[in-house]
Amino acid sequence: MCLIALAWRTHPACRLIVAANRDEYFGRPSAPAGFWDDHRGLLAGRDLQAGGTWLGITLEGRFAALTNYRNPADQRSGAPSRGALVSGFLAGKAGPADYARQVELQAGAYNGFSLLVGDGDSLWFVSNRGGRASRVKPGIHGLSNHLLDTPWPKVDRAKGKLAALLKAPFDASAAFGLLGDTQRAPSAELPSTGVSLELEERLSAIRILASGGYGTRCSTVLCFSNDERIEFHERSYREDGAVGGSVSYRLVLSGKGRGSSRRAESRPRETARPVR
Length: 276
Description:
By secondary structure, this protein is an alpha+beta fold. It has one domain: Penicillin V Acylase, Chain A. It has five helices and 14 strands. α3 packs antiparallel against α4. The radius of gyration is 17 Å and the shape is globular.
């Protein structure tokens, strides 16, 4: 992911709302969101090159998402895939705090990353480019290719748009509207991350239109409601900017591992198939 806006325990009906864009090279193979054959109950897209993911959830109420930390001079070839940090939490049993602290111990092996992991009780943030693992406080937060709530123009813009949406019931279409914003920030407001000013400007949009084979590959909107239901929606984009497919799931948490007696009411059902 390259932009994540989230509302944690801020909306009256939803404990977690997430609106996120994944920016990546279009040549890198990936699969749209779906339940993984090798980890039942894990719903996520999949990086078919390295096997991990950038954002996902589970029927037990686990959530994880990751962004890369932008610093071209700090990239090492041969480093392990950062997507494994997301799938490792989703497929595992460790709680958010324990997992974040485990990640700290091995964080130096990876290129720069910022990681969010959570369940219904807590949400944690950890990065190998600043500070210790920390519990995320209730509120509206934003994460791009730096640390949590770094005030980049696109982060502040996304947080402001999400705050406006929280005045109404959760609306996936409105959240996709937030994620489709292609407005760029003025050059005077841009951060300096080691890329050219021209590229910095292009990357400052919430949704990055493809250029040079790179741009926003997909948008994800999800909501964990207070009544144990989940909405998960993904919209994929082709390199020409057109929508390439969409997937939607409406699920009920199993409650496993969260001290809840609530079980899934039915087998997970895909309510909209990917468009080919």
